[in-house]
Amino acid sequence: MESTTEQPRNISGSMQSPRSPSSQPYLSVSVTDPVKLGNGVQAYISYRVITKTNLPEYQGPEKIVIRRYSDFVWLRDRLFEKYKGIFIPPLPEKSAVEKFRFSAEFIEMRRAALDIFVNRIALHPELQQSEDLRTFLQADEETMDRFRFQETGIFKKPADLMQMFRDVQSKVSDAVLGKEKPVEETTADYEKLKHYIFELENHLAEAQKHAYRLVKRHRELGQSLLDFGKAVKLLGACEGEPTGKAFSDLGTKSELLSIKLQKEAQQVLMNFEEPLKDYVRYVQSIKATIAERGTAFKQHCELAETTKLKEINLDKLMLTRSDKVGEAEIEYREIKAESEEATRRFERIVKRMEEEIVRFQEQKTEEMGVAFHQFAKGQARLANSVADAWRSLLPKLEASSTV
Amino acid sequence: MMGSENDDESHLHSSKEEMENLFLREDGDPLTRNHVNGDKSNSNYRSAMSTLSDSRHPSIVVTPADSDPLFAPPSYYRESRSPLSKPNGGDRGSSYLEPPSYADVIFSPFDDISEINGSEDGGSRHSQSSDSLSRSPSSLSSDYIKITVSNPQKEQEATNSMIPGGSTYITYQITTRTNLSEYGGSEFSVRRRFRDIVTLADRLAESYRGFCIPPRPDKSVVESQVMQKQEFVEQRRVALEKYLRRLVAHPVIRNSDELKVFLQAQGKLPLATSTDVASRMLDGAVKLPKQLFGEGGGASSVEVVQPARGGRDLLRLFKELRQSVSNDWGGSKPPVVEEDKEFLEKKEKMYDLEQQIINASQQAESLVKAQQDMGETMGEMGLAFIKLTKFENEEAVFNSQRARANDMKNFATSAVKASRFYRELNSQTVKHLDTLHDYLGLMMAVQGAFADRSSALLTVQTLLSELSSLGARAEKLEAASSKVFGGDKSRIKKIEELKETIKVTEDSKNVAIREYEQIKENNWCEIERLDRERRADFLNMMKGFVVNQVGYAEKIANVWTKVAEETSQYGRESS
């Protein structure tokens, strides 16, 4: 079990000042150089992951490894298992369909998203100390493949099996005992948080949907400007002067603006719509954490109850001086230990979540601020280009119409 | 999650307007009143066309009080006559120095026609612009005629009382305001039904062969069944108004008796209806047997002046058909042998032009739709963020949330503002690019003019060939009769009758040739005029389109520049 009582060191990552003095601990990661490998259905993209660090736990100041998407998934899953209560940074979607197309833009967007993913982990005070992270950043490809296969293999680890068993058990006992109602926390603050998270997802999803449509609209407007420009040029070819030249100029400008619109469409996609999608994914990750907390809470409650029952039973046995006392005492101590462990686990989750929420809100304000800024800059730039392009036609049009 | 696109959109529209208005009102933004039709338009270009080209809505006046266009004084959307006066047009050059330049310019599309058309026939511009009345405000004694079609009403067909509940039809009030002396009076109204328009159009076509007569609105039988009654009537009203305005814009047709009578004569329209004309078919049919037997007069010189129409002169139709076929026998020659190469070239050029205008107007439609969609989606996105803002504010626990909510609010309001600008831009764009659509109609008129010429030529050729065959018959008869000693009384009589026919036909041929020459002349003048006007109209269109684009692009740029400034503290990494 990963020890989590270490003090988080103030490690700077690549998102902050990369040129921190060498005495300062730093861990800087970048995901670069996407390369398409393999053929057909088995095609995939590999990335170079470059780690620069002065931390003692790492093998040297710089390490470069090759990783693929499923390796990132492995890392995310491991962190999710081990650091319950922490909002694990989300990954871009698996997208089996897009794989076949693998356009340059898709590849770039994925690379950027993976880069952000790793960097968020590297910057997180607890997550950055994870052994799995070190494995991910340093292990050679063969070792990595082995780890990955283990995780996604059909045979689940024993821990998972126990968990599954317990889940089934509790469901059965609930049914038998006739208490179907779920065991849930009912603190007002937590209720509010849950409600907030669930509602937030809906709102964000809607905003993201419109943002995506807006990207399409840019592309459509670009296309129609192109077609319009061409048509107008052809019309100009039928006409004498000065109309012919005027149409030709108009058409040329229209075609030029079409290119700018396509460019802006891509910018909006990368710098605005993608951050919104990321926001949605983050909220979904929080939902997963909420589910984990729910499970932990249930365990804590059930074990506490079971412990109580065992205690009562033990007391009874002690009173009757039964010879089963010894056995019962052992059982009781075991259950009590488990129960205390479950409670600790639950409380750790609660504490972590408290801190995480603050981080999350601050992070999101910053990231959305950047997204708004980028969007506004892009739109202003586009609008100014449009104005400039059309304005340049006016002197000639003026001159022509007074002929 | 969402239902069909349409349902979604319609719900969105009504509540979207409310939301937009509600939200902006919180800002103390005066821009909350019911504004122009832009909001009501759905992405359907056609309905956008009809609502936006509505003559009741003048071009939008843009008079920003200060640098922020959204805080313009309430007169922003009020109709106002004064803006129709030109802005200091000569200052266009100086616009480069003062920002914001075109944001100040009034976006009425047809302000500067006087500059462009100069001294030309003032009324020659077809009047699709809403309220521009006088073409040349600078000239004092400007001819002035303005037509309005309004007030559709249902009326009962006057049948004999034997048949109860006769069919109904719609009449429209046609109001003319003019200072032309030919019309007694400066303002008058009549009521006409669609059938009267058809009559007018038919009579004009007969009287003005070779002219580019604006095409009348379609009968639209299918549409009248399929569309909602109100929508159809409104569509028709708009079309009628456009048509009549084009007629009076035509320098020759505006003086026609037919038009005058149509506009002024009260009660029943005193023009021969097409059914009256068709009844001449009966006369024609009566004449037919006599003509078939070679008796009776040939084509009278009066009738020769008209093309052979179905039902009017069956025999003439047969003859001309035969002629056109015989013309064709000469190999791959076109049915009407047109020697005038210049004309043929011109015709081909006109055809090419028509194709390109069709293409351009289609792409213009797509462009308008794309602009419309951009505005709509921008607005929808803005509203989604407004909802998010409200949500965050209500649920805020941390200051970071409140800060984000504030950023979001600025962003969202700007998106909504930008969306409105897109839609305003679009309604103006529609008005400008509408010129292309109008020219489609005019190209049809050109085709009509060319067709008049072709049919007149066919008449001439038919008569020529008839003359030659009559002459040949006369020769044969004379030859045969001279063989008979002492004269052949019956043959001599026949020869004389034939000579009579030849004389009549000769007269008709001369008339037909004169008619043909006249039509050629009309063609030429009209094409000249059309080319001139088209040049002016297209340049005007381009200018208006471009000025609009510049103005609104500047406004949109301003909106987003402000947001960029407000969020400049985020992410010191440059893009």
UniProtKB/TrEMBL annotation, chain A:
Q: Which InterPro entries match?
A: AH/BAR_dom_sf, PX_dom, PX_dom_sf, Vps5_C
User: What is a single cellular component term in the Gene Ontology annotation?
Assistant: retromer complex
Q: Which GO terms describe its biological process?
A: Golgi to vacuole transport; positive gravitropism; protein localization to plasma membrane; protein targeting to vacuole; root development
Q: Which SMART domains match?
A: PX (SM00312)
The UniProt regions of compositional bias labelled Polar residues, in chain numbering, are: 1-11
Q: Which residues form a coiled coil?
A: 325-363
Q: What are the Low complexity biased-composition ranges?
A: 12-27
Note the superkingdom of the native organism: Eukaryota
One Pfam annotation reads: Vps5
Write out the entry's keywords from A to Z: Coiled coil
Listed GO molecular functions? phosphatidylinositol binding
Residue stretches making up the PX domain: 25-144
Q: PANTHER family given for it?
A: FI18122P1, SORTING NEXIN
> What is this protein's name?
Phox domain-containing protein
Organism of derivation: Arabidopsis lyrata subsp. lyrata (Lyre-leaved rock-cress)
TrEMBL record, chain B:
Bilayer topology reads:
Peripheral membrane protein
- Per UniProt, the ranges with Polar residues bias are 39-53
Where does it reside? Cytoplasm; Endosome membrane; Golgi apparatus, trans-Golgi network membrane; Prevacuolar compartment membrane
Asked whether the UniProt record includes Signal among its keywords, one would answer no
**InterPro entries of this UniProt entry?**
PX_dom, SNX2A/B, Vps5_C
GO BP annotations listed: protein maturation; protein transport; seedling development
Query: Which residues fall in a coiled-coil region?
Result: 460-522
Family listed: Belongs to the sorting nexin family.
Q: Which PANTHER family match?
A: SORTING NEXIN 2B (PTHR46757:SF6), SORTING NEXIN-RELATED (PTHR46757)
Stated name of the protein: Phox homologous domain
